[in-house]
Specification:
Distance between the termini: 46 Å
Radius of gyration: 20 Å
Strand content: 15-25%
Largest sheet: 7 strands, mixed
Strand order of the largest sheet: 2-1-3-4-6-5-9
Structural class: alpha/beta
CATH superfamily of the largest domain: Thiamin diphosphate (ThDP)-binding fold, Pyr/PP domains
């Protein structure tokens, strides 16, 4: 039996929600043939909204307030800069203040190798606000876990997807080895380079553990306590910007959980991101992760 891809899982789960739960889906250009990398089904409850991110967010929140759990699809995460306000100023806090739930599943799709208006990963921004859970799934099972969590609770959930994961069929597994010298943690697309980075390090005699992080908020640092006690060095690599972002926060949480451990943060640089080779600012690949790990092991710093 052919395995289902992440794309298949998203499309089938969405269709079931629209058909069985009277759910709704809002977004720009979501009715295009093969909409959003063919992750959106053909259904009357799929609403193609005007070219206004704020309006589309308000529509999705309004539907959720009326009892129809909604999905808000953003084809490029950069557009969340325009559509974020209704979620962070209202939907995420309305339950706590007024007792009225506005559960919206925010599908924010990230990508790489595009221009500066379409290629950013912005999940770090949503970690800052109360009442908002943040997940960055890269496998079918992780995405389903995010969806099931959303369906069981009464708050918005920011699901940071990446186009390079839509063809993924298999689940990823953490890899722990004896006598590891460093722990490599990955977030979003950066996770796809962890195994290769471990292989390169192993060829030069360095053993590494690798860990795949899907849940950014809440983040369960306690899961890694025993590993960090045994191997106190770590590197957290994200597909988004490192400064003031998810990798710095998670590195802090890990060090707080295990005093004496030293965990560094890694991601794209604090500079423009563009198709122009001068400003490409790519997600760290395996070799860059290796270079950072070697610097930590050799110099005690990046």
């Amino acid at each position: 039996m052919e395995k289902l891809t992440l794309r298949d899982i998203i499309r089938e789960t969405t269709n079931k929600h629209l058909c069985e739960n009277n759910g709704m889906l809002f977004g720009e250009c979501v009715k295009d043939p093969g909409g959003v990398s063919n992750t959106i089904p053909v259904h009357e409850n799929v609403i193609d909204t005007p070219m206004s991110e704020t309006a589309a967010a308000d529509f999705a929140i309004g539907a959720a307030l009326s009892g129809r759990r909604s999905i808000y699809v953003v084809r490029f995460q950069n557009f969340m800069l325009m559509g974020a306000s209704p979620f962070i100023s209202f939907a995420s806090v309305v339950k706590g203040i007024y007792g009225k739930s506005a559960p919206v599943f925010i599908r924010a799709v990230g990508c790489d190798k595009l221009d500066c208006n379409h290629a950013d990963i912005l999940h770090s921004m949503f970690m800052h606000f109360s009442g908002m859970k943040v997940c960055a799934p890269m496998t079918p099972g992780e995405w389903l876990n995010a969806w099931e969590t959303f369906m069981q609770e009464e708050q918005p959930l920011f699901c940071s997807e990446h186009r390079d994961a839509f063809n993924v069929t298999d689940e990823t597994q953490d890899e722990i080895c004896e006598d590891a010298q460093i722990n490599l943690f990955g977030i979003s697309k950066a996770r796809q380079s962890l195994s290769e980075a471990k292989y390169i390090l192993n060829k030069i005699g360095i053993k590494a553990n690798i860990f795949h992080i899907a849940w950014l908020k809440p983040f369960n640092a306690e899961k890694y306590i025993e590993v960090l006690r045994k191997t106190p060095l770590g590197l957290v690599t994200d597909a988004g910007r490192v400064i003031c972002g998810a990798p710095e926060h998670i590195a802090y949480e890990l060090m707080h959980a295990v005093p004496g451990s030293i965990v560094y943060a890694n991601g794209i640089e604090d500079s423009p991101k563009s198709k122009n080779p001068k400003f490409y600012n790519a997600v760290p690949d395996a070799q860059l992760i290796v270079d950072k790990a070697l610097s930590i092991l050799t110099n005690g710093r990046m």
